[in-house]
Amino acid sequence: MSLSRHVDPEEIIHHLKDIKLQEKGSGSQRQNHLTPYNSSYASQEDIPKYKIPENGTPGDTVYAMLRDELDLDGRPNLNMASFVNTYIEKDAQKLFVENLGKNLSDNDEYPAMISFSDRCVSILAHLWGVQKGEKAIGTATVGSSEAVHLGGLAMKRRWQEKRRAEGKDAYKPNIIMGANAQVALEKFARYFDVEARILPVSAQSNYCLDPALVKENLDENTIGVFVILGSTYTGHYEPVEEIHKILDDFESQTGIDIPIHVDAASGGFVAPFTYAKTGGHKWNFELPRVKSINVSGHKYGLVTPGVGWIVWRDESFLPKHLIFELHYLGGTEYSYTLNFSRPGAQVIVQYYNLIHLGFQGYRAVVENCLSNARLLSKALEATGWYTCVSDIHRPPQKQAGSVKSGSSGYDGENDQSCCSESQNDDQKAESEESKTHASSSSLSSSKDTPETDRNREETSADYTPGLPVVSFRFTDEFQQEYPHVKQETVSLLMRARQWIIPNYALPPNEDQTEILRVVIRESFSFDLIDRLVTDLVSVTETLMENDEVDLSLLQQHQGGRRRPLTKDEKRIEKEEREREERKGEERGEEKGKRMGEGIHRSVC
Amino acid sequence: MVHLTIIPKEDEIRDGLDIPLTGALKAVHLQLANDEDRFTTSVYGSKFAAADLPRHEMPDEEMPKEVAYRMIKDELSLDGNPLLNLASFVTTYMEEEAEKLMTESLPKNFIDYEEYPQTADIQNRCVSMIGRLFNAPVKDAEASSAVGTSSVGSSEAIMLGVLAMKKRWKNKRIAEGKPADKPNLIMSSAVQVCWEKATRYFEVEEKFVYCTPDRYVIDPKETVDLVDENTIGICCILGTTYTGEYEDVKAVNDLLVERGLDTPIHVDAASGGFVAPFVVPDLEWDFRLKNVVSINVSGHKYGLVYPGVGWVVWRSAEYLPQELVFNINYLGADQASFTLNFSKGASQVIGQYYQLIRLGKHGYRAIMSNLTRTADYLAESLAALGFIIMSQKSGQGLPLVAFRLKEDPDRTYDEFALAHQLRVRGWIVPAYTMAPKTEGLKMLRIVVREDFSRNRCDGLISDIRSCQGILEQMDKETVKKQQEFIHKHHVVSGKASHNHPKYHKEKHSLQGKTGKTHSIC
């Protein structure tokens, strides 16, 4: 949420007074309330923005004013930038509205709702392979950020307790994560005073946490490793099992036991359901080092924003010192959360989804998403202008090399000519598939023509596992041929057609590469893919046809829709910019490398 | 409570019932319909109505949406009636138009500033309005402007406040070349549990100012005496959750000024922030006081919005160290954010703006005045029934009534027994043990919310009277038995299955150490 500043309204109001036709209150509108629009706010008075108004306004008027103003917000479904789910079924919505006023922290008042929360935790733990004999424990959170903080804090406290028991100092904890980590992971480190060891990514590591670097950064002060199941940049799963092995080796050499927290914000509801799983590698509680896993209910859990989950494999991994016990009318409550009072309707919808969809229902949804994502990837590559950095449309790598070499995937395909048709591409995919068909399921056996290739016969198991994310960029040929065309402009022009497709640099050290990213969600069906591809092609064609001078105009327009700044804001902004620059100069830092300062590029 | 859940092991899972009943049923030859597959009759004719809902593992197959809806709705009917819950400050009523707006905004992700710019703008307006309501300095052109943000609730807001105070103190200490490893925070022992959480999780030592049997708020002098070089700040509560009294922020501030200390004060106005400015506008507790650097308030209490929104405002950007603020670069715009949560629903913020402009100062004042009147009336009636009133009247505190029974050696029942007895009538009136060092003082608390009208107040008073009548006729033994029975069969937490042996009877919190019970908020 954005930090906001008090805006000095004097100036604006002064300006409004100049253009006002009539003194306010001189008409009879206040009394005559025929329609919601029949109030003085309709034409003569500005809607209160900075100060609470002295007098109230009828509810239907306020409703109409706010609804109309909210029309300026984007359309949730065309927002390809976000993983956050935007559609829930009517019945789920009904449940949501009926329970809007329920407080999840009020255990005594809303026992039925609380028991749903318990059941969801239980269901998730089983879904993630909780082992026999272990007492798993978990809680609902507002989202994955809170869950990551709780998971990290538990690791920190366990480490502190262990160090103190050994009579060693516990002042310099550090935690390991890849540079592709979501902002919440770094926030945890900053807010809870843990040194963040953010490891650079590379094409070889699929722009994810690099196991080789993990090895170099381990020491006795490492409280744990954050492994991300489903990088938000390219949708690749980080190799949990491989990192697990490295930590095993480290322990056998040094005797230091380092746990893993899996941030499965998006992947926790994808990997278990897909036919592809995680490509034969383990990632969940089957691995003993994985002590906790978090997931966002509001991503592929198919709930609207406001719910996340965290599960620890056993209660012994949750230090007692962090838990607060609350007595209430003789009943007892255990609480380990950062938020207290909060809405519970999302939890109800989560339970609705779990039992309404069942395993098969969730599988159908994610398989559809993945199939659509593959379609989009192939269509994009078929243009010859774009190449995908994500891999879900490529056949899985052979088991021989444990880390797949990311570059070989797309560099080879850059040779394609500009005008190849999509059929061409299908055949290509087909042939590649038959080469590496070893691990596919029986469902995808009979394919004769390129057409049947699209006829639901294949599943995600025929392809590299990953999130339904398509990250793409201009091919090298395209960049050579049209050096003046900036990828950012594609994002800008798509926005003019209401699509939101962000363009940003990959995490360091790959930040010279920029990607456009499209997240395929449940509500983004075949038809919309079709529209999206058509629009992308026409936008790219427009760019190719125009020369540098024309396009330079567009560059000035960046930033999308913004309200004009008031004089005061402009002054503040300028001051801040200057201050920043001065600071930067003092420290002698180069601009652009701002990740360490907390500039994160991806939104999830 | 968003609480910890134990995942039952295989042998602990029974089919929904605690006592196996099936064995006791007689085997009668029944001719039952057996169209098991598809759902063609009403919801209750489907096979799902005859089976238990999945509890521990995800079902393999789908369930029709009508059935899932109805099953869940029916189960939720076991939840309490919010109107009769006098324990909680959290809003349970909003106008239909507000509900409609909130429903329409359900899929909006609040954090997605670029996609939902208008929602973000609406948040800014709310911050501005609330900041001004708290007299944030806006006149002074020289000082940098106040900043604020929305949160999920006061807990998050308080954690953000504590983090900011800690970081600012640390930066100062390090700049002075002094050690910065033993921060402490001064607060009343009547604080809400999230203050304890904040200090625990962010590793700050807690220094308590204890309440006494006749003082339920902090003592300004004692508070200021506790200040040392390692004090990151002082917490003052505008409306303690026990008795609703406002702590004397002005006295604390004046003492600090008198002694030349610049210790920052954070005012926890979770409940009082939307009451005091309307009922007692002359009370100085906010940014009018020099040392008050940050204030939090819950939108979902007297801000009159459904759960899920809180606010925190800092006097100026200076009190919010830059390294805590993260920027997210998104489509070319840097978005500054200071929050513990990331993605969350946008509805509540929109609901807050609706209420602010719908009601205006006039509307809020009208509602808060009514609540104050109802609370005064209730307090007087209870005093007439022979209770000792512990809360303040006439706007000197939150609109709640805290009371206890008169000392009487012949009395056979205590406050907890009365609370349990009222439960049978449907009312949730909680009983608490007061903050430590008040000699185990017990009390009952009734929160007067927007939807608690005079008529219902009369109903409650007569029920209290009749419950007392029942209890007076019982001897000690019967009272105890009765209380146990009610606890087991009427009170939900008595039946709770999620109580965890490992975390039971923790000793690290104020509650574990002193037996203070946390009041619900």
From TrEMBL, chain A:
Its cofactor is pyridoxal 5'-phosphate. Belongs to the group II decarboxylase family. Residues 399-408 have a biased composition (Polar residues). It catalyses: L-glutamate + H(+) = 4-aminobutanoate + CO2. This is Glutamate decarboxylase. One of its GO terms (molecular function) is glutamate decarboxylase activity. Its EC number is 4.1.1.15. GO terms for biological process: cellular response to oxidative stress; L-glutamate catabolic process. It is an enzyme of class 4 (lyase). Keywords: Decarboxylase, Lyase, Pyridoxal phosphate. Residues 437-447 have a biased composition (Low complexity). SUPFAM superfamilies: PLP-dependent transferases (SSF53383). One of its GO terms (cellular component) is cytosol. The modification N6-(pyridoxal phosphate)lysine is found at K299. Residues 425-436, 448-459, 565-604 have a biased composition (Basic and acidic residues). Residues 396-466, 555-604 are annotated as: Disordered. It comes from Neurospora crassa (strain ATCC 24698 / 74-OR23-1A / CBS 708.71 / DSM 1257 / FGSC 987).
UniProtKB/TrEMBL annotation, chain B:
Gene3D superfamilies: 3.90.1150.160, 4.10.280.50, Type I PLP-dependent aspartate aminotransferase-like (Major domain). Residues 492-521 are annotated as: Disordered. The keyword Lyase applies. Keywords: Decarboxylase, Lyase, Pyridoxal phosphate. Residues 492-507 have a biased composition (Basic residues). Its EC number is 4.1.1.15. It catalyses: L-glutamate + H(+) = 4-aminobutanoate + CO2. One of its GO terms (cellular component) is cytosol. GO terms for molecular function: glutamate decarboxylase activity; pyridoxal phosphate binding. InterPro entries: Glutamate_decarboxylase, PyrdxlP-dep_de-COase, PyrdxlP-dep_Trfase, PyrdxlP-dep_Trfase_major. GO terms for biological process: L-glutamate catabolic process. Its cofactor is pyridoxal 5'-phosphate. The modification N6-(pyridoxal phosphate)lysine is found at K301. NCBIfam families: Glu-decarb-GAD. Belongs to the group II decarboxylase family. This is Glutamate decarboxylase. It comes from Neurospora crassa (strain ATCC 24698 / 74-OR23-1A / CBS 708.71 / DSM 1257 / FGSC 987).
